[in-house]
Design goal:
This is HTH merR-type domain-containing protein. It comes from Mycobacterium noviomagense. By secondary structure, this protein is mainly alpha-helical. The chain has 4 helices and 2 strands; from the N terminus they run H-H-E-E-H-H. It has one domain: Multidrug-efflux Transporter Regulator, Chain: A, Domain 2 (Orthogonal Bundle), CATH 1.10.1660.10. A two-stranded antiparallel sheet has the order 1-2. The termini are far apart.
């Protein structure tokens, strides 16, 4: 996906010094987080790191966990589980929506079938030949 195709919050716009200033986290710590897989800034063609607003929010979460005494391996696991949970919640919402649509379609189909059956039961205007 090209940088232009990303949502605005995911576009890398800040260099490492600006991100350091915004987050209060030293550049060498940002590099450490990247090496540990906690953060994956985009890169320019020249290899310069570009951080996004999403990266800034992720750094805020990492800082919260560090302040609680969680080590980097634990932070990686927590972030992974939080991301997975968010994806599962999204998938569940989609499935509930799909299920509701299927139920509504089935209800319409059974209503249409019942209407046709009811017309046949009334003889459709024909006289009874046995009568």
């Amino acid at each position: 996906m090209t940088e232009d195709a990303l949502p605005r919050s995911a576009r890398g716009v800040y260099g490492i010094s600006v991100m350091s200033e915004l987050s209060g986290i030293a550049p060498q710590t940002l590099r450490l987080y990247e090496r540990r897989g906690l953060l994956t800034p985009s890169r320019t063609d020249g290899g310069v790191r570009r951080y996004s607003d999403d990266d800034l929010r992720r750094l805020e979460r990492i800082s919260e966990l560090v302040a609680q005494g969680v080590n980097l391996a634990g932070i990686a696991r927590i972030l992974d589980l939080e991301n997975r949970n968010s994806q599962l919640e999204f998938d569940n919402t989609q499935l509930q929506s799909d299920n509701a649509k299927l139920k509504a379609g089935r209800k319409r189909a059974s209503g249409a079938t019942a209407g046709k059956k009811g017309r046949r039961d009334h003889g459709g205007g024909r006289e009874d030949p046995a009568g």
